[in-house]
Amino acid sequence: MSEDDLPEPSRSPGEDSGSQGAPAPEAGADPAPEAGAQENAGSPVGRGLSRRGMLALLGGGVAGASIGVAGTAAVVAATGSSGEPGAGLSYPFAGAHQAGIVTPEQEHLHFAAFDIREGLGRDDLIELLQDWSYAASRITQGLDVSARGAFDGGPYLPPDDTGEATGIAPAGLTVTIGFGRSLFSTDAGEDRFGLAAQLPEHFTELPKMINDFIDRGRSAGDLCIQACANDPKVAVHAIRNLTRIAFGRAQLRWSQLGYGRTSSTSTSQDTPRNLFGQKDGTANIRAEEPDRLEEHVWIGESQGPDWAVNGTYLIARRISMTIEVWDGVQLGEQERVTGRDKRDGAPLSGGGEFDEPDFAATDASGALLIDERSHVARVHPSNNDGIRMLRRGYNFTDGNDDQGRLDAGLFFIAFVNAPERFSVVHKNMARDDLFIEYLKTTASSVFLIPPGVSEGGYVGQQLFEAG
């Protein structure tokens, strides 16, 4: 059946049976809700999925219709939630900033990058972002991607929702959507969507670093989605269904699964460990530090452009660790390389984990307690013009290579208000850091994360209204 055979989506409110785990209607009950049906009380109504988005969910068939967009009626603070940790934990989709940045970092990640299909235009791109925003506003609250969802579309149609998150969502799910530099202008200078004039001055690519062995097929992209949750299946469900919605408009370029957060983005969280067994992200910016967020993370009015204010830049780097080599290194040498005690994360100059390192402290023989080439010394703000960043990385293990070594490491994610600021720190690390011997970067990407979504709006709306 063609797109023209679909009924025009209704905008009138009704009832929504599309929440996760909604039972099938009993005999004699009213049929499944029609297009435009309203979510359960407390969720606002917006435009719903486009007809093309509904078609995509059905793989080209008649799609289950659905209801409106974005968020909850009352937007709580960035670290707020509507429930206790567990399946019922949820974060609002709408707000001044996108969720999934200062949100307390969840335990699991599915990150995906997409390319817009050739021949599509500006209106197609806007429609896709509207559909993604609509679906994200539902699944982050534990609902299916549409009102008919996984079970209520009837026995003769493929379900709108794949259903694997039923009963376990939302599990703290956040969906964060970003734009690649190619969305504004391709390497060949093509302005596919009329956005070249809006390319921010600070949106630059990262320079090649020492130990960069970049696979271009696993880097960059026109669009990205970061899905984080406390249940891995919920994160995968998000990417799986948003990819289905994009069918015919955008195709998956690459993706990465991550587990076991390697940062803390809230003072309520303990410092986690990476696959080298080290505490990671001790000096990270936290959500409870608004002044540092304004200085280092959020794009400000002085940087601009206006449409990007309150957004940020996401740096994603897939860093392979030479696990087997590191495992054979003496404990004392491991601590010299990192500059911190492996057990408690304290700097080798003394004190506790969160005490500032003293890079001038010496032992009885006059030798520095913290090696000048240690990781903590090379990346510390005092050695990098005061630059800080908000880290949000994850461990990964992608099987093994053909020599029987683990293909494992850190999927490094950081948020900064200009990519060049990250480059300053990383160049300092790459030049002298003792850690480099044990690391190899195999993929690298930069995405601009637009500001948050207003009630009834969509991600990137400020950009398209700017001209």
Report what the structure shows:
It is an enzyme of class 1 (oxidoreductase). It is a single chain. The protein has helices at residues 51-57, 122-139, 232-245, 290-296, 323-327, 331-338, 375-379, 419-432, 461-465, and strands at 108-116, 174-180, 223-229, 250-261, 312-321, 390-391, 394-400, 406-416, 439-449. It has 467 residues and is of the alpha+beta class. Strands 1-3-2-9-5-8-7-4 form an eight-stranded antiparallel barrel. A hairpin with a 5-residue loop joins strand 7 (394-400) and strand 8. The two termini are 36 Å apart. 48% of the residues are buried. Residues 1-45 and 61-84 have low confidence and may be disordered.
Strand and helix layout:
Blueprint lengths: L50 H7 L50 E9 L5 H18 L34 E7 L42 E7 L2 H14 L4 E12 L28 H7 L15 E10 L1 H5 L3 H8 L36 H5 L10 E2 L2 E7 L5 E11 L2 H14 L6 E11 L11 H5 L2
GO molecular function: ferrochelatase activity; heme binding; metal ion binding; peroxidase activity
Cofactor: heme b
Organism: Leucobacter weissii
